[in-house]
């Protein structure tokens, strides 16, 4: 087939060259040579791009496709029973949860306010002053403990009454050669898949870390949670290398949100609509899988990308997740297509 195509191309070029040698056809001759009732074919550059269907978009951007009862962007058709359930929840459940959520936020604001009353004066009175006040001693202890408790209270407001947590012990027997010095070394970061803003509430309630999202860390002295763009919960996107530059062990954590009607994953709908639908669910579920601490090899310490990829592959296997190389740029293209906007193909690139 390849040789036939080449021959056809050569023949076409030779005929074109003969026509040029014998003189160009006039515009009238070109029109007359066309079959009757056949309009001139538009040039490829002038042809408008065909709009992809929702099914085609969902296949192309599978990590961001919503497959629950509410459909793409949460605007899909729902049955009469689901509509009645939403109406009841919107009238009764949502107002109660909104009030409870405001009270939780107000309580934490008061805690932070009290614990930082004199911190600014102490900093201005001779501190180094690096742009913010550092909490130490009892102040930090109160903020952290209250933060963890109130973060869990906020999850309760959202309907996450029970959180099932599992420790994956199947991998611990494979690395029996790990010495005691490594076992005493604490992980420098928690590496987790990113599914929803609820992830942040869980990590705050569990360990109250700092967060690193959608960027490469320029320093290697932080301890926090490595995140990225949210997915529908079935896929695992590439990790940024910021959490792996410190060459320290990491704690892999896998988050799952089992659902029946509404998927708590935040991937293709507006934040306000997602929060509303989440508050309308009587019960939401969260499962957490804690993998053993991952100790990098010398080769992984020298190559943060290799370190990140190996941890990602391990999490995909243990969490039954699908690896995907899509990123934030593709997610924006998908959102624009769902909203009826046409974006150039050049936007199909990674957003570093």
UniProtKB/TrEMBL annotation:
Keywords: Acyltransferase, Lipid biosynthesis, Lipid metabolism, Membrane, Phospholipid biosynthesis, Phospholipid metabolism, Transferase, Transmembrane, Transmembrane helix. GO terms for cellular component: endoplasmic reticulum; membrane. The keyword Zinc-finger does not apply. Pathway: Lipid metabolism. InterPro entries: LPCAT1-like (IPR045252), Plipid/glycerol_acylTrfase (IPR002123). It is found in: Membrane. SUPFAM superfamilies: Glycerol-3-phosphate (1)-acyltransferase (SSF69593). GO terms for biological process: phospholipid biosynthetic process. One of its GO terms (molecular function) is lysophosphatidylethanolamine acyltransferase activity. The chain crosses the membrane at residues 86-111. Residues 1-53 are annotated as: Disordered. This is Phospholipid/glycerol acyltransferase domain-containing protein. It comes from Eragrostis curvula.
């Amino acid at each position: 087939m390849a040789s036939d195509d080449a021959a056809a191309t050569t023949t076409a070029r030779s005929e074109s060259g003969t026509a040029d040698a014998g003189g160009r056809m006039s515009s009238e001759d070109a029109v007359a040579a066309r079959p009757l009732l056949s309009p001139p074919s538009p040039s490829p550059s002038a042809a408008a791009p065909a709009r992809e269907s929702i099914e085609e978009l969902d296949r192309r951007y599978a990590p961001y496709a919503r497959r629950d009862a509410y459909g793409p962007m949460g605007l899909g058709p729902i049955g009469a029973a689901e509509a009645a359930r939403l109406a009841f929840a919107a009238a009764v459940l949502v107002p109660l949860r909104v009030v409870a959520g405001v009270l939780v936020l107000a309580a934490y604001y008061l805690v932070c306010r009290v614990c930082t009353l004199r911190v600014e004066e102490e900093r201005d009175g001779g501190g180094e002053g690096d742009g913010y006040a550092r909490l130490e001693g009892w102040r930090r202890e109160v903020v952290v403990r209250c933060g963890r408790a109130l973060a869990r209270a906020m999850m309760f407001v959202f309907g996450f009454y029970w959180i099932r947590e599992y420790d994956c012990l199947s991998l611990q027997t494979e690395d029996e050669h790990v010495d005691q010095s490594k076992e005493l070394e604490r992980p420098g970061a928690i590496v987790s898949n990113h599914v929803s803003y609820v992830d942040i509430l869980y990590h705050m309630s569990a360990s109250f870390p700092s967060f690193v999202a959608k960027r490469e860390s320029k320093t290697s002295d932080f301890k926090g949670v490595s995140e990225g763009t949210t997915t529908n919960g079935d896929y695992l996107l590439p990790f940024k290398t910021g959490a792996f530059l410190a060459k320290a062990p990491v704690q892999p954590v896998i988050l799952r949100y089992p659902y029946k009607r509404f998927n708590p994953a935040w991937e293709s709908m507006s934040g306000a609509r997602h929060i509303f639908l989440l508050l309308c669910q009587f019960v939401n579920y969260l499962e957490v899988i804690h993998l053993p601490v991952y100790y990098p090899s010398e080769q992984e310490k020298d190559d943060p990308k290799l370190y990140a990829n190996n941890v990602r592959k391990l999490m995909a296997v243990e969490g039954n997740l699908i690896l995907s190389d899509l990123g934030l740029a593709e997610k924006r293209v998908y959102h624009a297509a769902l909203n009826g906007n046409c974006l150039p193909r050049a936007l199909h690139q990674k957003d570093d």
